[in-house]
Automatic annotation (TrEMBL):
PROSITE patterns: OMPR_PHOB, RESPONSE_REGULATORY
Residue ranges of the annotated DNA-binding region, renumbered to this chain: 124-218
Start and end residues of each Response regulatory domain: 2-116
Keyword Phosphoprotein belongs to the record: yes
One Pfam match: Response_reg
Name of the gene: phoP
Name of this chain's protein: Transcriptional regulator
UniProt record, GO biological process: regulation of DNA-templated transcription
Residue positions where 4-aspartylphosphate is found in the record: 51
Length: 221
């Protein structure tokens, strides 16, 4: 999963990114409202964590512009503002959830996971597709009840396919959501990860539609 953390305090931004990365996200950060608007408008994210007190353009204005432009990415708003009226204003502007500062990283991660699941139409933390079970809270997978050991990259790939199981995912989209800007984004690197994952989960779990991409068997039509 690919996340954007918009926060002008470098320490908080680093802490949020570390917490999300530890929960299976691949997180980018920015600390300016104008840059945040540009990234949210031009890049594809599964989640955006947005502070309201930003330089350049305040977070509420950024959020309104995203929604006006048709951006439907789940947005979790962070703010030091405590007035309930401002929280209502954020929700009405298009925020999907609201977390006032100070907050616990564990709560942020729990809310982030829930937002991503709900955006994809899943209400539960444990997702089951055929023989495959994925526990998004524990970041664990099993096939027919047998635990499957996964690296962080393998988990991100499997989780993205499972959460988006109703469609075939193009390789370019997987590369974008799996790797950071400084990492190699080559098709053969993705194929190597898919091959390793298939060896671990067994046959009949990850399918390929030639010329289109990858999907979880029993998911995409």
């Amino acid at each position: 999963m690919r996340a954007l953390a918009v926060e002008d305090d470098p320490r908080i931004a680093a802490d949020v990114a570390a917490a999300l990365d530890g929960a299976g996200f691949r997180t980018e950060t920015c600390g300016d409202g104008e840059e945040a608007w540009f990234l949210g408008d031009t890049e594809s994210y599964d989640l955006i964590v947005l502070d309201l007190g930003l330089p350049g353009m305040d977070g509420l204005s950024v959020l309104k512009r995203w929604r006006a432009a048709g951006c439907v990415t789940p947005v979790l708003v962070l703010t030091a503002r405590g007035a309930w009226q401002e929280r209502v204003e954020g929700i009405e502007a298009g925020a999907d959830d609201y977390l006032p500062k100070p907050f616990r990283m564990e709560e942020l991660v729990a809310r982030a996971r829930a937002l991503v699941r709900r955006a994809a139409g899943h209400g539960k933390a444990v997702l089951e597709l055929g023989a495959l079970t994925l526990d998004t809270n524990r970041m664990a997978a099993s096939v027919r009840g047998v635990p499957v050991p996964l690296t962080a990259l393998e988990y991100r790939l499997l989780a993205y396919l499972v959460v988006n199981h109703e469609r075939v995912i193009p390789p370019t989209e997987l590369l974008e959501h799996l790797y950071g800007d400084d990492d190699a984004r080559e098709a053969n690197a993705l194929e190597a990860v898919v091959a390793r994952l298939r060896r671990k989960v067994g046959q009949g779990v990850i399918g390929t539609r030639r010329g289109f991409g990858y999907f979880i068997e029993g998911g995409a039509a």
